[in-house]
Amino acid sequence: DGVVVSEEVKNNDLDVKVTEAELETEEKETEEESTRECDSNILDVSSDYPREKHISIQRHLADLEKLADLKEDEKKPCPLCPEEKYKACYSHKLHRHLQNLHWKVSVEFEGYRMCICHLPCRPVKPNFIGDQTFSKMGAHYHCIVCSATITRRTDMISHINRHVNKGETESRFIIVPAPVSSHEVLKESATEVRVLPNYSTPQKTDSYFNPKMKLNRQLIFCALAVLAEERKPIECLDAFGATGIMGLQWAKHLRSSVKVTINDCNENSVTMIQENCHLNKMKVKLNAKEEDNDEAMGDGEENTDTIEVTKMDANVIMHLRSFDFIHLDPFGTSVNYLDSAFCNVRNFGIVSLTSTDISSLYAKAQHVALRHYGCNIVRTEYYKELAARIVIAAVTRAAARCNKGIDVLLSVALEHFVLVVVRVLRGPSPADDSAKKIRYLIHCQWCEERIFQKEGNMVEENPYQQLPCDCHGSMPGKTAVVLGPLWSGALFNTGFLRRMFFEAAHYGLDEAQSLLKTLVCEAECTTLKPYSIYSSYDENKQEECGVYIKTPNTSAESLLIHGKRKSEEVVQNAGKRQKSENSAEHPAFYYNIHRHSIKGMNMPKLNKFLSYLCEAGYRVSRTHFDPMGVRTNAPLAQFKTILMKYSAPTYTGGQAEGPVHLAEGVQAGEQVEAAADSKAEDDAEFVEYDKSEVAAATLTKDYPTYCAAD
């Protein structure tokens, strides 16, 4: 029996050894198979590029759209979603789906985008409900370095950062160089830029380029050209480069007068800016080292123009360095960068900013305006000028925190943007003078009359008394609202605008010339002819920022000396300057002639109406804010009186149907006499309200020149 038991034990030991050997061989076989699969994957990478990485890892949105094979007339499924989750749809819906659901929430790493994937790559643990088992496919990301699948975006970013900290930045997916994407080359003002296929989609592309902002770039260039005539060379910064089009135009046309720095925090944008610099035969300076590219330069051509390209946050570079000219053009509001811009800007330098958050500035999202600008606004007839004054008020407060004052040189509010250009005046006294110009506005919601509140901190018993109208006494309830705080000073500097017009004419910027003519007339609040700009530009003296500028007949040789208080060319007289500026300052806000037209009456032509206001002794001009707006110092009651006097009934055979709303101070007898006198005038002087003309006039590309002729 003992022998039999020992034999059985030996047999059991042999069986255990055999099973262990079998397990070891199986493990070795699985390891060899996995290594073979990896090797085969690497071979596939070298042989076929689309199979080198997961389809959710792409460089550009266009590459992701190529996987879907978008066609206009066919329904296509999403390449990153299962059919049971997202059904096949047409190209426009699929494009929006890929853009918003996959590309917008992607994680960027070394030029690649790891998009979110909904395919059955990572199954979620099954949920047992009763007798049924539900298994879902969770959304996840594919790591470009180690091929791991991670569900949350924040976890994916932390996972990539751990790879970077360990030095594991090389990926097996980047063995083969990425194919060169088809870039489109655009040309503007003799400057070529290479852009991505989706360049016109903001926040979803690395190099956003908007052709509709051409007028904005021309105005900024003219402002920089004027500053370049004052002192040379000047250091200028384009804080948000994108494609680098603006900085390239500065360097290409102004040459050695400027030292251009183009900054962007996106790595792909910085690469695009460098390529565009070489495309325009410019040298690139990176990290204080000059990068010479002989191939980019022409044969035998020597070009000393150098552009510095930096990759920093805009706030960081403006804190580290000083500049003479700074331009801010972020996507949306620019209030987050104002403190940094005024921190190190040099004395008598210029800060320009473009705000594209028009939904809040134009009172469509009033809560956003309160959150960003700390300003209470409502929709008014002068909402565009209100937007400009909101931005200037924010600029003034930011400059005052740095003990700096401002002088507003230019304010433009058009369909797509609000542009403000200010000159910086160092010192607490200019800061106090600028801060005093921030005041509240009282606006009547019945008649659209408006007036700035009086200076002082004392509370008034009846603030309605400040309004010229009597709507509070004749209408029930509360009729007025308090808007602001707003900038109450001038929006333009006439001398600077004339010099900008000269630079626009010198460089052949036609669109800017047309707008600057209007701005000069609006700044002077006059209806002079366009050629008056030339005659007034050649005056011996111009006053700007309290500094008298000698302007010889050769305007290109104009000289402005800043910073030298004791000089023959520079005369400072703050008291006299303020008195003269207050007397010649253009009136605040404007009236829309259609908003105050009388029902049943045909109003006169706008240019004729301007001449009638001038004959009555008021200052008057047209405005770029509104094609049918009239800027005048006449009260609203007198404005309506003159409009009523020179309007004619719609029906010449008798009085118009329905009651005719009389203006304040106009009696019924005066209305009948005005109507009788107006019948004898030529019918060509009167025009019906044509909405199509107004809509056509508001287009920025066909911007009219609002200088009235004889």
TrEMBL record:
Keywords: Isopeptide bond, Metal-binding, Methyltransferase, Nucleus, Phosphoprotein, RNA-binding, S-adenosyl-L-methionine, Transferase, tRNA processing, tRNA-binding, Ubl conjugation, Zinc, Zinc-finger. GO terms for cellular component: nucleolus. Residues 18-39 are annotated as: Disordered. It comes from the Eukaryota. Residues 143-163 form the C2H2-type domain. GO terms for molecular function: tRNA (guanine) methyltransferase activity; tRNA binding; zinc ion binding. SMART domains: ZnF_C2H2. It catalyses: guanosine(27) in tRNA(Tyr) + 2 S-adenosyl-L-methionine = N(2)-dimethylguanosine(27) in tRNA(Tyr) + 2 S-adenosyl-L-homocysteine + 2 H(+). Its main location: nucleus. PROSITE patterns: SAM_MT_TRM1, ZINC_FINGER_C2H2_1. Residues 21-32 have a biased composition (Acidic residues). GO terms for biological process: tRNA N2-guanine methylation. InterPro entries: SAM-dependent_MTases_sf, Trm1, tRNA_met_Trm1_C, Znf_C2H2_type. Pfam families: TRM. It is found in: Nucleus, Nucleolus. Belongs to the class I-like SAM-binding methyltransferase superfamily. Trm1 family. This is tRNA (guanine(27)-N(2))-dimethyltransferase. It comes from Ciccaba nigrolineata. The gene is Trmt1l.
